[in-house]
Amino acid sequence: MYYVYALKSLKDNKNYYGQTDDVDKRLSLHNSGKVASTRYRRPFVLIGYKTFETRNEARWIEYSIKHHSDKKNKFMSELKSQK
C-alpha cells in the first residue's frame, strides 16, 4: 500500500503534501529534520492520508495536489470528511 499524506507545520501553519509507503516513519523523518525540503518548518502534525494500491497512482495524486489548487482543495475536503 502507498499513501498520499498531508502535514501541517506548527511553525508557519502551512501544509505539506507527500507520498510514502510508511506514513509514521515519514512523519518521524520530517519532524527529525532529515527531509531537506521541510527541515526549517518543523514540527509537523499529520492532517490525514489516503491509501492507493500502486506507487505510480500515489505519485500522480501527489503531483496533481501540488500543481492544481482544485485537486488540493478536493483532497483536503476528502480528508476532513473522513474524520
Q: Would you kindly provide a written description of the structure presented here, covering whatever features stand out?
A:
- The longest helix has 14 residues, at 69-82.
- A hairpin with a 5-residue loop joins strand 1 and strand 2 (15-20).
- The chain has one domain (2-82): 3-Layer(aba) Sandwich (GIY-YIG endonuclease), CATH 3.40.1440.
- The chain is of the alpha+beta class.
- The chain has helices at residues 23-32, 55-67, 69-82; strands spanning 2-9, 15-20, 44-52.
- The chain has a three-stranded antiparallel sheet with strand order 2-1-3, sandwiched between helices.
- The model has no long low-confidence stretch (mean pLDDT 95).
- Helix 2 packs across helix 3.
